[in-house]
Specification:
Elements (H helix, E strand, L loop, with lengths): L2 H8 L26 H8 L2 E3 L4 E10 L5 E5 L8 E4 L12 E10 L1 H7 L4 E10 L14 H8 L3 E2 L2 H12 L12 E5 L4 H14 L11 E4 L2 E4 L4 E7 L2 H8 L10 E7 L10 E4 L6 E2 L8 H11 L5 E2 L1 H22 L19 H15 L4 E2 L1 H33 L10 H10 L11 H8 L3 H13 L3 E5 L2 E4 L1
Parallel strand pairs: 4-6, 8-12, 8-13, 11-12, 15-16
Antiparallel strand pairs: 1-2, 2-3, 2-5, 3-4, 5-6, 7-14, 9-10, 17-18
Helix pairs in contact: 4-5, 9-10, 9-11, 10-11, 12-13, 13-14
């Protein structure tokens, strides 16, 4: 999708995307089309002139290393605004608070005295915390399917997996003093190089300030201002310790409020993320694209979703958990797992740190995506039934397929070269009995649900790789 088509499909006269692309970083966006619509509205209300010498400001507080100065900005995602000067006997507003302050313009004393630096500031005569009551006035950002469409136009992947990846940009708010966010683990049944290519593309969509580690303070007009720790986006391969911190302990060493994590997982880390995905080769391909073209619309949506914190009652959580635990037992029985699989640290972990809480994060992310301020029991059940359980089933099936292939044909077997549907079909149809001729091409194609030529091509490739043989022409058996 070129940039003109992007604006034609998803733009609007309400400045959802504006009319310009930008590669500016998160905190250095310029006033105008780079701002989200709600930021532009707050900017209009940022400063009012009261009298000839008094000004009234409404904005978000950023603490600085100078304890007499705070930076006030129209948006929590900007590092450009007005410095506010406080006397020593005045109480400082909390970092990140939305406040109203009235004062007159002065030169900040301490920078002038210590380094001869002239910083224009507003001397706070009065200030008060203000409620963030403008949420109802914010126009909903891009819908989840719109985010998925523009992100994955050049990616072949199941729609369910696309929606999970899109939810990483929506994220989810904190719960019970733990960090928010959503975590996804990708088991590369498909080519790992292709999966890394996908993750590199996704990571490049967000600006650098949202990725990795960054200094605690940023420079604004020569003053060190405390960096906001709201949301960060991390994608790639991670150690088990780092993944446990984010996925299980729900703590971020960098101090962010929400962390979205998309990780390539191994056997020992596959169980940790909220949503485990397995990408099979026949459903997965990646074309090159220019992620910088998508940065502005995705960024505007991502930071807008952060403004909404959907609420949920304990009663809904309890009812949803009962449903999930019942479904976990059904899932366990369908795969023949032992009871102990439900213990802490295993794939179907059912305690407070496991799938019920993962489902809660999914439900709250979905609520944000549809701009809903409440989550009920049905939302939790929907998150499990439509998103997490299908993902778990496919993940388990494909992981078991890979493990059995490695056991039979050697570790490191390149099953990503084969169509996993065909591979699963022949494993199901081949009885293993001595003297059995094996299923036919027609039987395999019908069981796999693929076209005859697809099945024939895969079977020929498997035969060339020594995975199966033809005891009679047109009949196939696994080695």
């Amino acid at each position: 999708m070129d940039i003109e088509e992007l604006f034609r499909r998803h733009g609007s006269n309400h400045d959802r995307l504006a009319d310009a692309t930008s590669i500016s970083d998160l905190y250095t966006r310029q006033y105008g089309t780079e701002l989200a619509q709600w930021e532009s509205q707050l900017l209009k209300q940022f400063r009012e002139k009261e009298t000839a010498r008094l000004y009234r400001y409404h904005g978000f507080v950023h603490h600085t290393r100078d304890t007499s100065l705070v930076l006030l900005t129209p948006s929590p995602w900007l590092m450009d605004g007005e410095f506010i000067f406080f006397e020593r006997d005045q109480e400082l507003p909390p970092d990140g608070a939305f406040i109203e302050v009235v004062g007159s313009r002065v030169a900040a004393p301490r920078p002038l005295q210590e380094s001869n630096l002239i910083i224009r500031a507003i001397a706070a005569e009065t200030w008060s915390a203000r409620p963030i009551d403008f949420i109802s006035d914010i126009r909903p950002p891009l819908r989840l399917n719109e985010i998925s469409e523009i992100l994955f136009e050049h990616v072949g992947m199941s729609e369910a997996s696309k929606r999970v990846f899109a939810r990483l940009f929506v994220s989810s708010p904190p719960y019970q003093e733990c960090i928010g966010g959503l975590t996804t683990g990708i088991q590369a049944i498909a080519s790992k190089a292709q999966v890394r290519r996908l993750l590199s593309f996704i990571k490049s969509v967000v600006p650098p300030a949202m990725k990795g580690r960054h200094p605690s303070f940023r420079n604004a007009q020569g003053i060190k201002v405390k960096s906001p720790r709201l949301w960060r986006f991390d994608v790639g391969s991670f150690s088990i310790n780092k993944m446990q911190q984010i996925c299980v302990q729900r703590k971020d060493p960098a101090g962010y409020r929400e962390v979205s994590l998309g990780a390539i997982t191994k056997t020992e880390t596959a169980i940790l993320p909220d949503v485990p995905l397995a990408l099979a080769s026949e459903d997965f391909w990646v074309e090159t694209g220019n992620p910088s073209n998508l940065r502005l619309p995705i960024l505007k949506s991502a930071i807008t979703f952060q403004m909404l914190t959907p609420e949920i009652t304990k009663r809904s959580i309890d009812a949803g958990t009962e449903h999930i635990l019942a479904r976990l037992d059904v899932l366990r029985e369908s795969f023949g797992f032992e009871e102990r699989v439900l213990a802490r640290g295993h794939l179907l972990d059912a305690d407070a740190l496991g799938r019920p809480l993962s489902t809660l994060r999914l439900a709250r992310s979905s609520a944000r995506a549809f701009w809903k301020d409440k989550v009920n029991t049905n939302d939790l059940k929907h998150a499990w039934d439509r998103i997490l359980e299908p993902a778990l089933k496919e993940f388990i099936e494909l992981t078991e397929l890979k493990q059995s292939a490695e056991k039979e044909w050697g570790k490191g077997s390149r099953i990503d070269k084969f169509n996993t549907r065909v591979l699963k079909a022949i494993k199901k149809l081949d009885t293993g009995k001595r003297g059995y001729l094996g299923p036919t091409l027609n039987e395999i194609a019908e069981e796999a649900g693929v076209e005859h030529h697809v099945a024939a091509e895969t079977l020929a490739r498997m035969k060339d790789n020594g995975v199966l043989y033809e005891p009679r022409p047109g009949h196939y058996r696994l080695v």
